[in-house]
Specification:
By secondary structure, the protein is of the alpha/beta class. The protein has one domain (11-231): Rossmann fold. It contains ten helices and eight strands. A hairpin with a 2-residue loop joins strand 4 (85-89) and strand 5 (92-93). It is globular and about 50 Å long. The relative contact order is 0.23. The structure holds 2'-deoxycytidine-5'-monophosphate. 2'-deoxycytidine-5'-monophosphate (DC) is lined by residues 20, 42-43, 46-47, 107-108, 111, 137-140, 188, 192.
Length: 257
């Protein structure tokens, strides 16, 4: 059965996985906007636990402490009116703090802990079950939503991913030194790919796209063409995309931003 027949009238789930800097969030956000779907960045779950660990002084080398923290932290992720993924911890919007260098430095250590992953898995799976969503991460196609209607795995050379991370950090007001960014990306790649629980790897049925040397618009157009084939309809140009309604994903509060 083709993917398109499989989707039918059900709300589609699109998985976009790949290493840091491969372009996942840019592509996932644009695809969600173009096809009227919600965008969820699952890395924010792990970043939120890392933020809490730093805030509370939890030892990030203690798997037990991190697991207990992941179980007890109330993390809510929703998509706002502009299609951005917003993250709340115990009701507080922490989204803008999740990209800080100190979180980058320890989040892979947090995400490699099996107990942390287990504590966060149900929340991610319930988002996938609701459907109508584009989720980006490392294990969406393999573990969180193995039945996703479309699985895309984005890759790019280390050099290109480092350049993108530097540009992104500068946009967010963080100064970035090339050597440190390259070391950080290599370190995170290694931990994400070599960990025992849900390592970073493409699902056997993922479409692998190399984004090296491509502009974001080129990659977005390529992915949009595949999405249109799978879920039906035409791939709209970026200017014809529309913004999804704000939607609540977990917890009582609607996304207010
Ligand atoms: O995508 P990101 O950079 O925000 O991810 C932050 C960390 O979380 C990174 O180390 C990979 C990990 N992660 C994961 O293990 N599984 C996911 N589904 C999403 C992110």
């Amino acid at each position: 059965m083709s993917n398109r027949q499989k989707v039918g009238t059900k709300r589609p789930v699109i998985a976009i996985d790949g290493p840091a800097g491969a372009g996942k969030s840019t592509v996932a956000k644009a695809i969600a906007s173009m096809f009227g779907l919600r965008y969820i960045s699952t890395g924010h779950f792990y970043r939120a636990v890392a933020l809490e660990a730093l805030r509370l002084g939890v030892d990030v080398s203690s798997e037990e402490s991190l697991t207990a923290l992941a179980r007890s932290t109330d993390i809510t992720i929703c998509s706002d009116a502009r299609g951005n993924s917003r993250t709340f911890v115990d009701g507080e919007d922490v989204t803008d703090r999740l990209a800080a260098p100190k979180i980058d430095a320890c989040v892979s250590e947090v995400a490699r802990v099996p107990g942390v992953r287990l504590a966060l898995l149900d929340r991610q799976r319930s988002l996938a079950r609701e459907g109508g969503v584009v989720m980006d991460g490392r294990d969406i196609g393999t573990v969180v939503a193995p039945d996703a209607d479309l699985k895309v795995f984005l890759v790019a050379t280390l050099e290109e991913r480092v350049q993108r991370r530097i540009a992104q950090a500068r946009e967010q007001g963080h100064e970035a030194c090339r050597g440190a960014v390259a070391d950080g990306v290599t370190h995170r790649d290694r931990i994400d790919s070599e960990r025992e629980a849900a390592p970073l790897r493409p699902a056997p049925d993922a479409v692998i796209i190399d984004t090296t040397g491509k502009t974001p618009d080129e990659t977005i157009a390529e992915v949009a063409g595949i999405v249109a084939q799978v879920i039906g309809g035409h791939a709209p140009g970026p200017d014809r995309g529309h913004e999804p309604e704000p939607s609540r994903v977990k917890g009582e509060r609607a996304c207010s931003t």
